[in-house]
């Protein structure tokens, strides 16, 4: 009679035992005891996750379909909040500004981080340089945004340095037309050091034999980065791109502290999604509309998921063995 249990060629040859528990092992007292331990260890964490993540997300989705001023009963609005939001020119401006932050600043940050990685890869004192470029990230973002405002003040350091080199006609950095550009530059400077340090840590994992082989073949520094460094750090770049998308979509304090006057909101031409949602929920000059604020939050959630999927698919790579 043929056996009911298939035996692998490796097992038949007396080789290693197949990975994973077999039917007999799954019903052993040890595995039954381990399954019982799932309840006291996993369920509390699952309950906390549902309470602080899943439940607020579902409530936000429900709130986005209603009108609510923060008190009193909700009024069902269906998709009206979404249609009203997309017809609002301030929301469209916020959408464009968010795009510039996520894509424009992200491209600049990653380009600078890649360039710094190439420059610092073979440089003496790279550990010291790594600490220097990482230093801005240790300072709270609110303090950086305040300092950035002082730098570009009409009597600030930037204009003083320009005057020292003979440039006496400088733009009004903090005017409404230029304020968002100055903010983008500040965000680029603030974030580049973090990703440079992460990329350099990824480069440290690459075996030096690969670079030696590339040098024997006569590869330039850019070719070594193009054909050795980047392919082997693609998984790190993929994770960094996800972190950047999530962080960039939530950009808030830099805009608020840099540009807002005391007790007022920044000018609408520099709003992004986070600022738009905050203004709809806590507008000091108008009636709160938590429904539209929640609808904006749902849009941010969908965009975050979409950008994460795109980043992971574009930057995915097969497992490399070296």
Structural summary, described in words:
Helix 5 packs antiparallel against helix 12, helix 12 (234-249) runs antiparallel to helix 15 and helix 14 (273-282) packs antiparallel against helix 15 (290-314). It is flat and about 75 Å long. The protein has 15 helices and two strands. With 322 residues, it is mostly helical. It has helices at 9-12, 23-26, 29-63, 80-87, 89-121, 126-134, 141-151, 157-164, 176-204, 208-216, 221-232, 234-249, 253-259, 273-282, 290-314, and strands at 66-67, 75-76. A hairpin with a 7-residue loop joins strand 1 (66-67) and strand 2.
Produce the secondary structure layout.
Elements: H1 9-12, H2 23-26, H3 29-63, E1 66-67, E2 75-76, H4 80-87, H5 89-121, H6 126-134, H7 141-151, H8 157-164, H9 176-204, H10 208-216, H11 221-232, H12 234-249, H13 253-259, H14 273-282, H15 290-314
Antiparallel strand pairs: 1-2
Helix pairs in contact: 3-15, 4-15, 5-9, 5-12, 6-9, 7-13, 12-15, 14-15
Q: Give the distance, in angstroms, between the N- and C-terminal Cα atoms.
A: 47 Å
Mean pLDDT: 82
Taken as a percent bin, the fraction of beta residues is under 5%
Largest sheet: 2 strands, antiparallel
Q: What are its keywords?
A:
mainly alpha; 68% helix; flat; 2 strands; two-stranded antiparallel ribbon; 322 residues
Brief sketch in words of this structure:
The chain has 322 residues and is mainly alpha-helical.
């Amino acid at each position: 009679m043929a056996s009911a249990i298939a035996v692998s060629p490796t097992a038949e040859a007396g080789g290693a035992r197949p990975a994973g528990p077999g039917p007999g092992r799954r019903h052993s007292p040890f595995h039954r005891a381990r399954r019982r331990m799932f309840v006291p260890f996993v369920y509390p964490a699952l309950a906390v996750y549902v309470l602080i993540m899943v439940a607020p997300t579902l409530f936000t989705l429900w709130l986005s379909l209603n009108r609510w001023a923060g008190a009193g009963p909700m009024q069902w609005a269906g998709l009206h909040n979404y249609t009203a939001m997309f017809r609002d020119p301030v929301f469209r401006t916020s959408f464009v500004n968010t795009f510039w932050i996520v894509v424009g600043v992200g491209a600049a940050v990653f380009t600078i981080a890649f360039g710094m990685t190439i420059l610092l890869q073979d440089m003496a004192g790279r550990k010291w340089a790594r600490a220097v470029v990482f230093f801005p990230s240790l300072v709270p973002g609110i303090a950086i945004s305040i300092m950035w405002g002082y730098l570009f003040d009409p009597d600030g350091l930037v204009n003083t340095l320009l005057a020292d080199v003979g440039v006496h006609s400088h733009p009004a950095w903090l005017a409404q037309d230029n304020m968002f550009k100055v903010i983008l530059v500040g965000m680029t400077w603030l974030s580049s050091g973090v990703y440079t340090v992460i990329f350099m840590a990824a480069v440290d994992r690459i075996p030096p034999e690969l670079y030696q082989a590339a040098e024997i073949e006569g590869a330039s520094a850019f070719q070594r980065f193009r054909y050795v460094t980047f392919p082997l750090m693609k998984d790190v770049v993929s994770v960094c791109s996800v972190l950047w998308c999530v962080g960039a979509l939530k950009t808030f304090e830099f805009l608020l502290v840099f540009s807002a006057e005391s007790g007022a909101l920044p000018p609408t031409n520099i709003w992004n999604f986070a600022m738009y949602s905050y203004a709809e929920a806590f507008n000091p000059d108008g009636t709160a509309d938590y429904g539209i604020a929640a609808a904006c939050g749902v849009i941010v959630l969908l965009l975050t998921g979409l950008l994460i999927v795109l980043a992971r698919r574009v930057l995915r790579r097969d497992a490399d063995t070296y």
